[in-house]
Amino acid sequence: SVPRHTNRLINEKSPYLLQHAHNPVDWYPWGQEAFDKAKKENKLIFLSVGYSTCHWCHVMEEESFKNKEIGEIMNKNFVCIKVDREERPDVDKVYMTFVQATSGGGGWPMSVWLTPDLKPFAGGTYFPPEDGVHRVGFRTVLLRIAEQWKENKDALLENSQKILEALLYRSEIHVQGQESPPPSKEVMATCFQQLSNSYDEDYGGFSESPKFPTPVNLNFLFTYWALHRTAPEGARALQMALHTLKMMAHGGIHDHIGQGFHRYSTDQHWHVPHFEKMLYDQGQLAATYSRAFQISGDEFFGSVAQDILLYVSRDLSDQAGGFYSAEDADSYPTTASGKKREGAFCVWAADEIQALLPDPVEGATEGTTLGDVFMHHYGVKETGNVSPMKDPHQELKGKNVLIVRCSPELTASRFGLEPGRLGALLREGQRRLSAARAQRPRPHLDTKMLAAWNGLMISGFAQAGAALAKQEYVSRAAQAAAFLRRHLFDPASGRLLRSCYRGKDNTVEQSTVPIQGFLEDYVFVIQALFDLYEASLEQGWLEWALQLQHMQDKLFWDPKDFAYFSSEAGDPSLLLRLKDDQDGAEPTANSVTVTNLLRAACYSGHTEWVEKAGRILAAFSERLQKIPIALPEMARATAVFHHTLKQVVICGDPQGEDTKEMLRCVHSVFSPNKVLILADGDSAGFLYRQLPFLASLERKDGKATAYVCSNFACSLPVTSPEELRGMLCP
C-alpha cells in the first residue's frame, strides 16, 4: 500500500527517524532548514526526542503523531522537529536539563516547545492525546501554547530568555575547580558505604525495584576488593558484586533461550524485565562477567560472558564488523497479529513448552517428561508466572518469563535424576525452544552503529578474550576496531564520527552531513583501543588511541573550570555546553577519561596527562566526597590515580612460548592499577620511541622476563609466572 503521507524524515538514516517518515506530521530533522523556516514564518518549534527501543515513544506516536487531526494542529502552528537522542545526545541533554529543572522529572519521549531561536519555554514527556481526569491531553497543550504565542509573544520571549540564563547558571555550578583531587581513601570508603547501605542482601542489586544492572557499581566493588583483599569490607565488596551477578544471570533479565541481557528488571527479583536489549549493556556486562571469572575462577561467570558475546556476534553484528545499537521490546506475537506486545518474542505459555518437550526422561521418576524438568527448573507455571501487579497492561497474561528458581542439584533430586545429567537435558530444552522462537516475528532491530557503544562492545570482547584466553574474541574486537577506523573516523581531520548506518544492500552508509563525534565517542573508543592493545599487543591500536586523546583534548577540554565538555564549541544551535556528573547505565565520559589519561601517560611518558586526570577529579571533588554513589566509576578512578599505575613490562619474543606464558599470567590476575606493555626488542617500534626506558630492560638468561615499573622506575627482573603473580597480587 502506498503511504498517505511522507515527510522529510524519509531522507534520514536513523531507523528511529525513518519510523516517523509517514506520520501526517510535517516532521523536520534537527537542522538549519527547520530553524530557518521557524524564523521566516515566525513560528514556535515543537521538538520531540526519543529513540527506537522506547516503549512510550511508540505509544505517543500511535496515539498522537499518527492522528490526522492532531497532525493538522501541529503543522498549522509549529515547525515540528524529531530527534533520535542516540544520534544527538547533545541536543537531548540541553533540553532534558530544561525539562528536569521545570517539571522535576524527565524521560522519553521528551516533548519541548521552543522559540524560533531555540530557547525552551514549555515541556514535558509523554502526553496522552486527549484530556483525562489527571492529565492535560496533547491536543489541548498544543492549542493553548499556540494561543499564548498569538496573544503574549513578548512575555513568552522574555520568559524564555530568563529560563536560559537560569539554565546557564545551573549548568556551571555543578563542576567547581577545586585546588586538588579529593582524598581517595575517603572517597572509596564513602562510596563503598553508600553501596553497602543500598544493597539488597537477598537478591543482589542496589535498589528494591526497578532493578538495573549498573556495571559501574560492580566494577567499583571489584576495585575496592582488590585494594582491601584481607579486610572484612573487601570480602563483603566482592560478595556483593558476585552475588548480584549470579542473581542477574539466573533472573528473567537474562535471556535463557536467546542469550544476552534485557535492559532492566521491573521487580526486586530480576524476574520480569523491560525486554529491549541495548548494545551498551552487553559490552559492559561481558567485561564485568569476565572480571568476575578472573577474580573468582568460577566457570559460571565465564560462561555468562560467553553467552553475551554469542548473542552479540549472532544478532547485533554487521557483516562489515560494526555492532548494531539495540533490539526492541515490542513485537508481534504471531505473523498474523495486528498489534505488537511487549516481550512477545521472549515469553512462553506452559502448554507451548509441554508440546515442544514431550519426551519421557529415562532414569527419572515414572512419567517425567523433558517439559516437566525444564518447567520446574525455570519456574514455569500453568497459569503464567508474571504477577498481574507487574503487568498493568495485561500483555503477559498466562505467559512465563523463564527464571532459574533452584540449583541444578535440587531440580535433579526432585525428579530422581543424577545431578550430572541435568545440564544436557536443559541444553536440549533450550535448543528446541530457541528453534521454536526463531519462527516468531522478530522485534525491530536498530541497525544504527554508534562509535561510543561500539567502543564499549570492543572492550567487552577484548577483556573477555584476555581473561578467558579466547583468541576469537580478541580477533572480533580487532575486526570492530578496524571497522571504526574505516567507517567512523576521518583520517584527513583526525576526528571521530558519531554514527553510521546499515544501508539498502547491507552496505555501510553515512548521512549526507555526518554527525561529528562527541566526548563519549572519543572516551569509549580510546578505552577500547587500550583494552584491545592489552589483549592483542598490536601497537597500532596504541598509536591511534594516543592520537585520539590529543584530539579529545583539543576539542573538549575546559581550561577554565577543568574537565571535558560533552560536546565541542562552535555549534550555534546548541544553547549550553554541558558536563555530565552521573555514572548511570553507561559511565559518564569524564569518569572513564581519568583512567584513560593515566593509561595514556604510561604508554607515552606525557606527564601532563596525569595532571589533567588530577584536575578532573579536583573539578568533581565535592560530589565525590558527598555522594560518590552517583559517580562510582570516577570514585574507582580516584584509587587508580592515588595508587599510581604499574607498568607491567614483559620483555620477550611475542611468538615465544615463555612470553605467552608470562602474558597468560598477567591476563589471569585482576589488578585494577596495572598497564601491560610487551617489549619485543624492536627498538624502531612505536613503544620504544615513546618510552626510552624500555631500551634498558633486558631478557634475563635469554628468557622472557617481567619488570613491574612505576613512574618509570622498575623492579628487579623475574622470569617465572609464579614470581610475577606474587608481584601483581600484593
From TrEMBL:
Domain Spermatogenesis-associated protein 20-like TRX: 6-167
Sections of the chain in a coiled coil: none
Name used for this protein in its record: SPT20 protein
Organism: Pandion haliaetus
GO biological process, one term: carbohydrate metabolic process
UniProt gene name: Spata20
